[in-house]
Write a structure and sequence with these properties.
CATH architecture: Up-down Bundle
CATH class: Mainly Alpha
Mean pLDDT: 97
Shape: globular
Strand content: under 5%
CATH superfamily: Glycerol uptake facilitator protein
CATH topology: Glycerol uptake facilitator protein
Helix content: over 70%
């Protein structure tokens, strides 16, 4: 249960930070830095207990990598999605239940950037937090968090910058993204995580 609680806590603060920095009055151009930073600190805080996924696509990639038991993977995802709903509702409450106009992304562009930056995130996670060749390093949390900073600054205006099915659910609950758009994130994010795991195996065939 400790692992699942850690995944809930980390995802909760991740999604809450997204809501509080993006919903008006938000943090403006500093929002991506806050969002990447909260992921970084939560990865450091909970990585030794649960692995610090806070992202169903990362859980998929780590499971494919063989570093997340099959019994844990679906429960991790449930905890992450539950945390996203709670955090999304709390963010709306704390912001005074604002009227939000959902973004309407170009579907093709959104699929591309969500796939690419989810791939990048999962690829960084696998190489910095699961590889025996980088075992014991102290930079994994910083690398993971700043991958999200890079993605949010680069692609936030195109897709909303989720790179994470839990974040996608959270921004849907908050009205930042329309319900009809959630499939974009689910397809692109899970595909990005799966391809990252395959790429890791291809590039690190001896890293079992």
């Amino acid at each position: 249960m400790k692992k699942y609680a850690v995944e809930f806590i980390g995802t909760f603060f991740f999604v809450l930070t997204v809501g509080l920095t993006v919903l008006d009055p938000g943090a403006g151009v500093m929002a991506p830095l806050a969002i990447g930073s909260v992921l970084m600190v939560m990865v450091y805080a909970g990585g030794h207990i649960s692995g610090g996924h806070y992202n169903p696509a990362v859980t998929l990639a780590v499971w494919m990598r063989g570093r997340c038991p099959s019994a844990d993977a679906p429960i991790y995802m449930i905890a992450q999605w539950a945390a996203a709903v709670v955090a999304g509702l709390l963010a709306l409450y704390l912001k005074g239940m604002p009227e939000v106009t959902p973004m309407t992304p170009n579907i093709a562009y959104a699929l591309i950037v969500e796939f690419l930056f989810t791939f990048a995130l999962c690829y960084v996670v696998l190489n910095t937090a699961t590889s025996k060749n980088t075992a014991g390093n102290s930079f994994y949390g910083l690398a993971i968090g700043f991958t999200v900073v890079i993605g949010a600054y680069s692609a936030g205006a195109i897709s909303g910058g989720a790179f994470n099915p839990a974040i996608a659910l959270g921004i849907t609950v908050m009205g930042i993204s329309a319900v009809t758009n959630i499939w974009i994130f689910l397809v692109a994010n899970f595909l990005g995580g799966a391809v990252a795991a395959l790429a890791f195996y291809a590039l690190n065939p001896d890293d079992k």
